[in-house]
Design brief:
globular; 14 helices; mainly alpha; 361 residues; DUF475 domain-containing protein
């Protein structure tokens, strides 16, 4: 992404998202007409697609901020690859292939049979997806929790939003593996609360989530260590690309599972969440090119707090149902509060600069 494009208008950033929205909603309307044969049915599917898009945006805005934080350090070549290949993986991989793969594994059927099941028996398909919620929540919750804690347990972090808490975490970041120990303790607590097979499933899936995070971190470290031996196109990119793809997958778990509360039709879900994913991509580009994270110093903190809240919610969802609206509003509220704090800080800085210039201080 070229920094010369930083003066692009809001419409310029959202152009392709708007085009995808129009095409997606039209496809939703056509699908609704084909499946119901009535105008009311068509409008219902149209509305569900729109709601799913809003759900995906609300759940994934913190994802866009984290993506922007990682993208700003990537080479332009890998930035472009993430924003092209990455969005294809995000839309088709996580919103279509991933739900199909769950059914293939859970039901022990082939991919073609899973597609037929999604089209012909959506209720059964939805039941299988809901039954797979526990291991998905354990895996995704663990990965996201490690992402959030690693950000705060960093002894080099010198900008703090919630000062007392973040200074405390930064101080103890020098203890190797402190965040891993915290997550493992939480895994043991939740696995002991659950009973029987559910306990074993949660424990196993959570450990896999932890191992996946550590493996991605290890791979990124190895790639960073061998930068000088790598081609210019690959420097500072492949490890971050893999990290962002796994991160996007973890963010997508909650939205994909939650979508089945609105509809059991896989294709409607793919359209709605796909529209939302395009807006997340547009927001990511805008955050990088406008250097928003630099101008609003606490915005990144709000995103990582939202990630931690989401990870805890995913854990708690293994015990109780929590509406997706609460998940989305919780994350959006934290990000909004961090934005307000950033604006307030900027105003105070400007006032201080004026006072210094006038000699009052």
């Amino acid at each position: 992404m070229n920094q010369a494009q930083s003066h692009t208008s809001l419409f310029g950033y959202l152009k392709w998202s708007i085009i995808v929205t129009v095409v997606g909603l039209l496809l939703g309307g056509v699908l609704g007409w084909q499946t119901t044969g009535t105008v009311s049915g068509m409008l219902t599917v149209f509305f569900i697609c729109a709601v799913l898009a809003v759900l995906e945006i609300s759940l994934s805005f913190d994802n866009a901020i984290v993506n922007a934080n990682k993208l700003k350090d990537m080479t332009p070549v890998w930035q472009q690859r993430f924003l092209t290949w990455g969005i294809l993986i995000a839309v088709f991989g996580m919103r279509i292939v991933f739900p199909l793969l769950i059914v293939v594994i859970a039901a022990g059927i082939g991919p073609i049979d899973a597609i037929v099941l999604a089209a012909a028996q959506p209720d059964e398909y939805a039941r299988i997806m809901h039954d797979a919620h526990l291991p998905i929540a354990a895996f995704g919750g663990t990965f996201l929790m490690m992402v959030g804690l690693t950000y705060f347990f960093n002894h080099e972090k010198d900008i703090h939003w919630v000062v007392v808490l973040e200074k405390y975490m930064s101080r103890y970041a020098t203890i190797k593996g402190v965040e891993i120990a915290f997550v493992l303790a939480l895994i043991l607590i939740f696995s002991n609360i659950l009973d029987g097979e559910a306990s074993y499933t949660f424990l196993t899936s959570a450990i896999y989530g932890l191992i996946t995070f550590l493996a991605v971190e290890l791979l990124g470290g190895l790639l960073d260590a061998s930068q000088r031996a790598m081609s210019e196109a690959a420097r500072g990119g492949l490890g971050a690309f893999i990290y962002l793809e796994v991160l996007d997958a973890s963010f997508s778990f909650d939205g994909v599972i939650g979508a089945f509360a609105l509809t059991q039709n896989l294709f409607i879900i793919a359209i709605g969440l796909g529209i939302g994913a395009m807006y997340v991509r547009s927001m990511t580009i805008m955050l990088v090119e406008k250097q928003t994270l630099t101008h609003y110093r606490y915005l990144e903190h709000g995103a990582f707090y939202a990630i931690l809240i989401l990870s805890v919610i995913m854990y708690v969802q293994t015990l109780y149902h929590i509406p997706e609206a609460i998940t989305g509003l919780g994350g959006a509220s934290l990000i909004g509060l961090s934005l307000w704090s950033s604006i307030r800080h900027n105003r105070q800085e400007r006032v201080r600069d004026v006072d210094l210039a006038s000699g009052e201080i």
